[in-house]
């Protein structure tokens, strides 16, 4: 879940991150009022959308981005009247940035904030490094610009360090990074406080991404967060109802919100084969299989949709409705593994949903698991135009062929073939410590053959008599005396 800048700065204030005064507004009149109340000689008017690069974006009058209004979605003004004039040009119009893709997002909220005297711009972010199983702090002296550009042009200027989520960011870690990016001792002291507060915010809110670009050093050596971008782990929102309340439905995909309200995971993609699968892993494999086996027919997955382990008739009906809202979908592939739910139960749910929704596009169903024979029989005897598949490959190929047949039936040409995706083999990586130890040990030595026990030979009679002659009467052998 993503939030707006002004919402993130509310969290920053809670956890002690230094920010400037500001207020969110939705009308030009309120923008003028807040600018007057702030009383600053310089005020910044910021468009609030879920995308970065707002300052370098372009504002258009329409969603298709054909009629340009002005450059930049973040403007510095010097009077309340100017704040109102800029707000009039931003509110209700559409902002396109490097992160919005081909589309533009409508601006419905503005954040009116104090200005400040900037001496230096820094970049700070905290991410969850899943490879290291720890959060990582990333810092750069090149703030105020795209960090991707910095990584490409001067990767040595991006510094990072992992920290213990139980302990937070250590002062020694922030202090070392502060000196490495060229801050003075007074600036480093304030930098340490700000970075540690950002770490507390990240950990306390169950965030998976926090970015401040720029984190500025003012003329008075203060360190202030001028920006805020945060996203959170959806699975942890039940612990943070105050953050869940920040959800802006206008910034979210309507289909994703509807799926989430029914405990389903949905992500819109760019293909033509709608997918309905139970289980995230199986859903990912299904999308890969469509791209592989449907390439010759120009097929590609149109969505990721995981209906979960309990694929009831109500869930399946809702899933069909969500998929069919996408006009780009030309066929639907249902791939269900009957583990917890039996295949006959799932088949009943699919057939009920088909009758209720009234499908107008081809439907291919592949079932596997418990009671699969009964499930297939139900589909075969239903009399509905459902295409049964014998396996995943068969299902993907039938869905791709059905999609092209659907296009031809509408007077459209079939999709051209797509390049076949290259095969991917998973090769586990060696652990660095183990690989280093093996390289230092050199080539492995051949194991020595195990010693075999040979039974002792029985001494002959003359040998026994000679041995007994050397023993004293006590039965103990004499030891030779020491030479002097």
Task: Please outline the helices and strands.
Elements: H1 5-14, E1 22-25, H2 28-38, E2 43-47, E3 58-60, E4 68-71, E5 74-77, H3 80-90, E6 94-96, E7 105-106, E8 110-114, E9 118-129, E10 134-140, H4 147-153, E11 158-162, H5 171-180, H6 185-204, E12 207-218, E13 223-225, E14 229-232, H7 241-244, H8 254-261, E15 265-268, E16 273-277, H9 280-293, E17 303-306, H10 313-324, E18 331-338, H11 343-357, E19 363-369, H12 372-380, E20 386-389, H13 392-409, H14 432-441, H15 461-469
Parallel strand pairs: 16-18, 18-19, 19-20
Antiparallel strand pairs: 1-8, 2-5, 2-8, 3-4, 3-6, 6-7, 9-10, 9-12, 10-11, 12-13, 12-14, 15-17
Helix pairs in contact: 2-3, 5-6, 9-13, 10-11, 11-12
Low-confidence stretches: none
Identify the quaternary structure here.
single chain
- Beta strand count: 20
Main beta sheet strand tally, sense and closure: 6 strands, antiparallel
End-to-end Cα distance, whole Å, is: 94 Å
Structural shape: globular
CATH architecture of the largest domain: 3-Layer(aba) Sandwich
Q: Please give the CATH class of the largest domain.
A: Alpha Beta
Please, what is the average pLDDT? 87
Give a quick set of tags describing it.
Dna Ligase, domain 1, Rossmann fold, 3 domains, D-amino Acid Aminotransferase, Chain A, domain 1, 15 helices, single chain, alpha+beta, 484 residues, globular, 20 strands
């Amino acid at each position: 879940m993503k939030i707006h800048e002004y919402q993130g700065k509310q969290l920053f204030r809670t956890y002690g991150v230094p920010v400037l005064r500001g207020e969110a507004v939705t009308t030009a009149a309120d923008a003028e009022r807040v600018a007057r109340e702030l009383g600053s000689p310089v005020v910044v008017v910021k468009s609030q959308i879920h995308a970065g690069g707002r300052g370098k974006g372009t504002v258009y009058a329409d969603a298709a981005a054909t009629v340009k209004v002005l450059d930049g979605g973040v403007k510095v003004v010097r009077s309340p009247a100017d704040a109102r004039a800029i707000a009039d040009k931003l509110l209700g119009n559409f902002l396109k940035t490097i992160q919005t893709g081909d589309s533009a997002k409508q601006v419905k909220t503005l954040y009116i904030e104090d200005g400040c005297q900037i001496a230096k711009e820094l970049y700070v972010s905290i991410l969850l490094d899943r490879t290291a199983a720890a959060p990582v702090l990333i810092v750069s002296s090149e703030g105020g610009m795209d960090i991707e550009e910095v990584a490409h042009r001067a990767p040595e200027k991006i510094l990072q360090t992992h920290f213990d989520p139980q302990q937070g960011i250590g002062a020694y870690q922030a202090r070392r990074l502060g000196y490495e990016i060229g801050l003075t001792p007074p600036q480093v002291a304030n930098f340490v406080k700000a970075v540690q507060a950002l770490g507390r915010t990240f950990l306390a809110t169950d965030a998976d991404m926090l970015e401040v670009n720029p984190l500025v050093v003012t003329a008075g050596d203060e360190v202030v967060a001028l920006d805020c971008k945060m996203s959170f782990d959806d699975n942890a929102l039940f612990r943070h109802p105050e953050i869940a309340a920040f959800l802006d439905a206008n910034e979210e995909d309507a289909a994703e919100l509807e799926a989430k309200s029914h405990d389903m995971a949905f992500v819109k993609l760019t293909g033509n084969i709608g997918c309905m699968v139970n289980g995230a892993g199986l859903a990912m494999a299904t999308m890969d299989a469509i791209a592989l086996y449907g390439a010759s027919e120009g097929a590609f997955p149109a969505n990721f949709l995981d209906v979960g382990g309990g694929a009831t008739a109500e869930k399946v009906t809702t899933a069909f409705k969500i998929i069919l809202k996408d006009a780009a979908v030309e066929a639907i592939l249902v791939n269900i593994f009957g583990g917890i739910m039996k295949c006959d139960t799932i088949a009943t749910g699919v057939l009920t949903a088909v009758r209720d929704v009234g499908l107008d596009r081809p439907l291919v169903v592949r079932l596997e698991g418990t009671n699969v024979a009964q499930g297939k029989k139900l589909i075969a005897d239903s009399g509905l135009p459902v295409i049964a598949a014998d396996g995943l490959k068969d299902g993907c190929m039938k869905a791709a062929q059905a999609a092209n047949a659907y296009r031809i039936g509408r007077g459209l040409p079939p999709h051209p073939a797509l390049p076949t995706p290259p095969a991917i083999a998973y090769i586990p990586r060696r652990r660095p410590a183990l690989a280093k130890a093996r390289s230092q040990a050199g080539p492995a030595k051949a194991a020595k053959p195990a010693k075999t026990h040979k039974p002792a030979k029985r001494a002959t009679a003359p040998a026994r008599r000679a041995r007994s002659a050397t023993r004293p009467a006590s039965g103990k052998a004499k030891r030779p005396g020491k030479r002097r």
